[in-house]
Amino acid sequence: MPAMKAAILAVGSELLGTDRLDTNSLRLTALLDTYGVELCRKAVIGDSVEEIAAELRTLLSRVGLILVTGGLGPTADDVTREAAALALGRGLSFDAEVLAGIERRFQSLGIRMPQVNRRQAQVIDGAELIANARGTAPGMRLESGGANLFLFPGVPSELEGMLLSYLEPWLAERSSGIGRETAVLKVACLPESAVEERIAPAYDEFGREWITILAKPGEIRLQATAAGPEAERRARLAVMVERLHELAGDAVFTTRNEDTLESVVGGLLRAAGATLSAAESCTGGLLSERVTRVPGSSEYFLGAAVTYTNELKTALVGVPAELLAAHGAVSEPVARAMAEGVRRTLGSDYGAAITGVAGPGGGSEAKPVGTVHIAVAGPREGEVEHRKVRFPGDRERVRSQSAQLALEMLRRRLIAVADAA
Description:
Blueprint: E1 5-11, H1 23-34, E2 38-45, H2 49-60, E3 65-69, H3 80-88, E4 92-94, H4 96-108, E5 122-124, E6 128-130, E7 139-144, E8 147-152, H5 156-175, E9 178-188, H6 192-206, E10 211-216, E11 219-229, H7 230-248, E12 252-254, H8 261-272, E13 276-280, H9 286-291, E14 301-306, H10 310-317, H11 321-327, H12 332-346, E15 350-356, E16 371-377, E17 384-390, H13 395-420
Helix pairs in contact: 1-5, 2-3, 6-7, 8-13
């Protein structure tokens, strides 16, 4: 399927507002990318027969593959069938077998089929039907002037089922094994520019267009892409990932897309047979929430103390009152004492602590908003690592980056201990 060009059209007036995201287009984009199809256009159109038909006419003259999602439901605003028929100059007919299938689905659920669902049995002349095992609206594939037009329902779960059962095999058959594949490396707590500096040699080695840096607060995603037959592209990807890992160094915390920093830390704790507890102030339990997102985290996470006040820092994790009086809650000595204190109090191998000024108020000249102290204690008594940082951004960004850095410090500490053993 060399040089096939495609377009995606998402139908639904709700997608033009602020309450609903068009996630279907992202799923379709990923599938097209896998099979080497060049995506030239994405569009969102409201529930207008004329607008949808006009867009389809334009696309039919420009690309060989058009994927449409949405507008196949039973209500009056579901007009994709009518619009596609208009664009192609074809008629619509009721299909008795489709109607019987819809009726059977309602019967299996113990529900009487509303009469409006009869609209979903309308089929465009010349269409090949695509079975919908997860809903009532069948999809359709139509050919016109060498272009293929697919109509899919907009319900994500129904779309997913039809992609797996029909579109993916259809694309695979025409790709002859030629496709694109992307691998990912994730880096924590480094600026985008610093990562760019490290991996710059790879641009000359593999081509700038095949390497992408995607940044968000606290995490960088390095994406390496290769194209060609499966064996060839996978071999190239393996070389690219190895080289990028070499250049980025120990800042890479995973090369698996499904991994998160908290799952990696959890895996290291589990492998070491070690346990963790946390004492949090400005993050209010966010670090603990991150750790416990991981299924099975009860194997290594004992618990936490949210010590928002000075009094609770003393009462719950044993921070000396005189230490707080001398240095203030946002300080290195207090962060260290919190990490050691929660480790000792809860009996864990490691203790993590965060104290800072998340804002927007509460800062001072000496301790401006964004100032955070993070400490990791363990696995032996008196072993404490500390970082003082000043994070930019609003309250939520300061809190999220604080939790991220605490996890990264734990990851590095666990690796260092394992390497030294």
